[in-house]
Amino acid sequence: MKPVTQTLMIILAIAFAIALSLTVALLCLSYAQALPHGSSTPESDPPPSFPFPESDTSPESALPPPTTGDTGAEATEEQTEPETEPETILPDVSNGLSFTSNRNGTCRVSSIGTCIDACVVIPEYSPSGELVVAVESGAFFGCSTVTAIQIPASVKSIGSLAFAACKNLMYISVNAQNPHYRDIDGILYSADASTLILYPPMRAGTDLTIHTVTTAIEEMAFYNCAYLRSVSYTGSPDQWEAIRIGSKNYSLIAASKTFYTGAK
To answer: How many angstroms separate the CA atoms of 85 and 88, rounded?
Structure first.
């Protein structure tokens, strides 16, 4: 009986060992299946997520917008190029007039230049900053585009025929602060009205009154006046004959005359 008992114990021991081995193998197999693919160790706890804004918790909203093309070119486009300094334009005056410097801080208007304004406003200072003190002889002679002229206070001298033969000229205005010239109803006079310099050819109205204070009328002051028909003179015929009247004042000569011999 003793050999049988020993044999049975050996069989039981072998069976127990096999069962133990199978149990260990099953446990290992289950453990391996629980691991991620290609991993030999279990994963650690995942890192905490980035705290995105409450309004948008998606990771894409926290990233900068994608760029396209050359980043250098894009940066250049975002930078505002400095503006070029604009051309100097004097306010409320005509641009394009030609000036001649007197080389002492003053200048004179020499011609209409490239100015295309119908109403020519002569500036007190030229674009170069020089004080405008004169209008040269014949500066605007025969300019058919000019309908009105404004003269600043700084002008001390207006040359002969400066505004003559401007066939569409209707009005001349002189700054009230000018001590050398004045306008009376759009007609250009010297400051004391002793000299009538220019009656605009297209001035409205058929009648004109000339006072005895006027003792001289410049050449072509009444050239091709479209509407003038009559002249009233506040002096006598003899006083009228004493007025120094320049040449080519055909419209003045052709107009009818009325005299007031009793006027002072």
So the answer is: 9
**Single-letter residue type at 163:** F
Q: What is the pLDDT of residues 56-90, one digit of tens each?
A: 444 444 444 544 444 444 444 444 544 544 444 44
Written as six digits, the tokens of 148 are: 């009105």
Tokens of 160: 């002969």
Give the C-alpha separation, 254 to 174, whole Å.
Answer: 28
CA dist 233 and 69 (Å) reads: 85
**Total count of domains within the chain:** 1
CA dihedral 101, 107, 110, 115 (to 10 degrees): 100
- Token pair for residue 249? 């004042």
The distance in angstroms from the start CA to the end CA of the chain is 180
Is residue 136 included in any domain, yes or no? Answer: yes
Instruction: Tell me the two tokens of residue 64.
Output: 């900068």
Cβ proximity of 193 and 183 under 8 Å: no
| pTM for this predicted structure | 0.66
Domain contains 247: yes
Torsion angle, CA of 248/250/256/257, rounded to 10 degrees? Answer: 0
Amino acid in position 117 = D
SS3 for 242? helix
Return all residues near 117 (Cβ < 8 A) that are at least 6 apart. 94, 96, 145, 146
Predicted confidence (pLDDT) per residue in 187-216, tens digit: 999 999 999 999 999 999 999 999 999 999
CATH number for position 159: 3.80.10.10
242 in Cβ contact with 215 (< 8 Å) = yes
